[in-house]
Amino acid sequence: MSGDSGGQSILPLEMLEILRRIEKRGSLEKLRKVRQYCNQIFRYAIATGRATVNPASELTSTLAAPKAAHFPHLRADELPVFLRKLAEYHGSPVTRMATNLLLLTGLRTIELRSAEWSEIDFDNALWTIPESRMKMRRKHVVPLSRQATDILLQLKTFSEQYRLVFPGRCDINKPMSEASINMVLKRIGYDGRATGHGFRHTMSTILHEQGFNSAWIEMQLAHVDKNSIRGTYNHALYLDGRREMMQWYADYIDSLSSQES
C-alpha cells in the first residue's frame, strides 16, 4: 500500500498485506484494535465522500481472532431476558443495584465493591477513583449516566452513614464479598453464562459495534497503558465524549429492559 494512496484506491488485499504482518507477530489483540481503527476511519471516509469502499470490513473472517475472553459474558441479544430476571431478583437490593451499576459503568468488580462515598460527585455526575484503587495505578474518572446516578442515590438510603458504598455484612469497614455479584448471577440462572467482569466485555463490544471512538471506550475501561504517549494526557481529555457515550449506553440498556417489560 503506497504512502500516497488515497482512500478511494485502497483495496482489501492491500490492507490485508499490512495486517498480516501484525498477525504473524502473534499480536492478535493489537491486530483487532488496528482493524477496528481502520474500520472507523473508512466508515467516516465513506460518510464524507472520501471513499466508496471500506476494505477493513471485508477482512473479519480472513484474519485470526484473539483468544476468547476468560470471563463468560452476555451478547446484546441476551440482555433483555437477563435484565428482566435481574429486576425480578428478590435477594438483597444492594447487591442487585451493585450488579446494575457494574453493567452501567464498565468498572472492574473490585473497583465497584470498594467504592467510597467521598469518591462520588453528585453535582457533576462524576466518580473519581484514586490511583491506589486502580489496576493501572492511575486515577480514573468515570462519567455517570442519569441511570447510574439514580442507583447511587438509592444506595444512599442503605449506606450513606458508612465510608463504603457497599459495606460488608459482617464488617462495615470492609467491602462486600467478592462473590456477592456472581452469587446474584447464579441465583437468577446465569452461573457460568455471565460474570461481573464479563459486563466490561459486553459493554466494549456494543460500543465498538456502534462506532464509538475506541479511545473513549479504552479510557472508560481504564485500559490506557500508563507508559503510552496517550496515557500522558490529562485524564479528562475524553470526558465529554465519554459522558455522551455512557449516557447512550445507559439509554440503550433501558430500551432493552422495556423489551421484556
Automatic annotation (TrEMBL):
<dbReference type="InterPro" id="IPR050808">
    <property type="entry name" value="Phage_Integrase"/>
</dbReference>
<keyword id="KW-0229">DNA integration</keyword>
<keyword id="KW-0233">DNA recombination</keyword>
<dbReference type="InterPro" id="IPR013762">
    <property type="entry name" value="Integrase-like_cat_sf"/>
</dbReference>
<keyword id="KW-0238">DNA-binding</keyword>
<dbReference type="InterPro" id="IPR011010">
    <property type="entry name" value="DNA_brk_join_enz"/>
</dbReference>
<dbReference type="Pfam" id="PF22022">
    <property type="entry name" value="Phage_int_M"/>
</dbReference>
<dbReference type="GO" id="GO:0015074">
    <property type="term" value="P:DNA integration"/>
</dbReference>
<feature type="domain" description="Tyr recombinase">
    <location>
        <begin position="69"/>
        <end position="246"/>
    </location>
</feature>
<comment type="similarity">
    <text>Belongs to the 'phage' integrase family.</text>
</comment>
<dbReference type="InterPro" id="IPR002104">
    <property type="entry name" value="Integrase_catalytic"/>
</dbReference>
<protein>
    <recommendedName>
        <fullName>Tyr recombinase domain-containing protein</fullName>
    </recommendedName>
</protein>
<dbReference type="InterPro" id="IPR053876">
    <property type="entry name" value="Phage_int_M"/>
</dbReference>
<dbReference type="InterPro" id="IPR010998">
    <property type="entry name" value="Integrase_recombinase_N"/>
</dbReference>
<keyword id="KW-0614">Plasmid</keyword>
<dbReference type="Pfam" id="PF00589">
    <property type="entry name" value="Phage_integrase"/>
</dbReference>
<dbReference type="GO" id="GO:0006310">
    <property type="term" value="P:DNA recombination"/>
</dbReference>
<dbReference type="GO" id="GO:0003677">
    <property type="term" value="F:DNA binding"/>
</dbReference>
